[in-house]
């Protein structure tokens, strides 16, 4: 619960993609940022700090649950069976407003397609692609349009 509260309080991108890929991916991302030295941006330095905590957390056996359209919160890291469920805004490019909108629309009912998610939640194609990139939209068709050919 400590880690969930910590990340929720910071309200920053956690680099969900690396975190979900495991400790090896987290360490690789840390090396990538460290190799930049003084050329690293302020955002990358902030990400590095978060990656250090993720590295410790994953090394201690704390498990992360992926972002889920119907179980994740917009901004809070939730504890489920001793594991931490990532929120929508843990993804780079998914801001708080988009995350809240996605959560609210998901509570109203299932999304029929990526297009339906984009239209109902009023989010950009970039947000939809960020969700798809980490598997959140697996099993949901991109469009409800049927091909006649």
Structural commentary:
The protein has 149 residues and is mainly α. The protein has helices at 2-10, 16-21, 23-36, 42-59, 96-108, 114-121, 125-133; strands spanning 64-65, 78-80, 83-85. Strands 1-3-2 form a 3-stranded mixed sheet, with no helix packed on it. A hairpin with a 2-residue loop joins strand 2 and strand 3 (83-85). The termini are far apart. The model has no long low-confidence stretch (mean pLDDT 87).
Biggest sheet record: 3 strands, mixed
Radius of gyration: 16 Å
Strand content: 5-15%
Helical coverage, percent range: 40-55%
The helix-strand sequence is HHHHEEEHHH
**Overall SS class:** mainly alpha
List keywords for this structure.
149 residues, mainly alpha, 3-stranded mixed beta sheet
What is the compact description of this entry?
The protein is mainly alpha-helical and 149 residues long. It has helices spanning 2-10, 16-21, 23-36, 42-59, 96-108, 114-121, 125-133, and strands at residues 64-65, 78-80, 83-85.
């Amino acid at each position: 619960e400590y880690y969930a509260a910590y990340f929720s309080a910071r309200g920053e991108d956690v680099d969900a993609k690396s975190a979900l890929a495991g400790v090896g991916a987290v360490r690789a991302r840390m090396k990538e940022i460290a190799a930049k030295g003084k050329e690293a941006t302020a955002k990358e330095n902030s990400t590095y700090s978060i990656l250090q905590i993720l590295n410790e957390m994953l090394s201690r056996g704390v498990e992360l649950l992926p972002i889920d359209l119907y179980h994740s919160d917009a901004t809070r890291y939730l504890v489920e069976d001793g594991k931490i469920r990532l929120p929508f805004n843990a993804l780079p490019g998914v801001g708080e407003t988009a995350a809240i909108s996605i959560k609210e629309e998901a509570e109203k009912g299932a999304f029929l397609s990526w297009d339906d998610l984009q239209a109902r939640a009023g989010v950009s194609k970039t947000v939809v692609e960020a969700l798809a990139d980490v598997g959140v939209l697996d099993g949901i068709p991109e469009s409800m349009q049927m091909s006649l050919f």
